[in-house]
Amino acid sequence: MTATGKVPALFTRMDESSKDEWMIIAQETMSNQPRVAETVLSMMQQLEEITDGFAVNQLVHCLQTAGRAEAAGADEEVIVASLLHDIGKVVSVPNHPKIAAEILRPYVREEVVSMIAAHQDFQGRHYYEHLGMDPNARDQYVGQEWFSLAEKFADEWDQTSFDPDGPTPDLSHFEPMVRRVFAQAHRL
User: Fold this and answer.
1) In what helix (H) or strand (E) does residue 77 lie, and over which residues does it extend?
2) CA-wise closest residue to 114 among 66, 150, 88
3) Could you list the residue range(s) of the whole structural domain that residue 44 is in?
4) Residue (of 104, 98, 120) closest to 178 by Cα position
5) Are 86 and 44 in contact (CB under 8 A)?
6) Is residue 110 part of a domain?
7) What confidence tens digit (pLDDT) does each residue in 116-165 have?
8) DSSP state of 56
9) Is residue 117 packed enough to be buried (19+ CB in 10 Å), middle (13-18) or exposed (0-12)?
10) How many domains does the chain have?
């Protein structure tokens, strides 16, 4: 029996599945949706172990970034995205923005996904030149409707959030927001 008390799908190949079986799978997936928020919160805790030479660990950085977004009056999707913007570093630093964006994609509007997916190029304005990279990498996104949101995120919240003595909300402060945002996927 499944968590919802139904007989699970019995197919061993998708090309032999039925609509009724997929309805069971869809219902089970929706009933188990709370595990997504819990998994994301667990991944956030793992950022505490990642410093990579910064003055603060990546959890503190993310908490400060989300705190700045909240103080600036950002909406809940943007605050949660600000909190999760570096969650991909648990897996891989070079492509962490795209990992974070894909985690968020089903749960937030597209402009927020784009803000996170491109945040490294926007933040690069403040450090890319030190690495021999183009500090104007964000210019490739000029004209995108989400450009100003990504610019605000990078310049006002993200790049200013590496202060060991700076205000740092607890992760518990953001947990209800994370649970609300991840409560239901808007799209697959």
Assistant:
1) helix 76-84
2) 150
3) 34-181
4) 104
5) no
6) yes
7) 999 999 999 999 999 999 999 999 999 999 999 999 999 999 999 999 99
8) S
9) buried
10) 1
Which pLDDT score is estimated for 187? 65
Confidence (pLDDT) at 8:
86
Residue 159, domain member (yes or no)? yes
Give 82's Cβ-side CA count (13 Å radius).
36
The secondary structure of 148-164, three-state, reads HHHHHHHHHHHCCCCCC
Say which amino acid occupies 79.
I
Residue 12 located in a structural domain: no
Structure tokens at 68: 């700045």
What is the domain-level CATH number for residue 157? 1.10.3210.10
The reported pTM is 0.92
> Residue 91 domain-assigned?
yes
55 has pLDDT over 70: yes
Going 169 to 127 to 99 to 52, the CA torsion angle's sign is negative
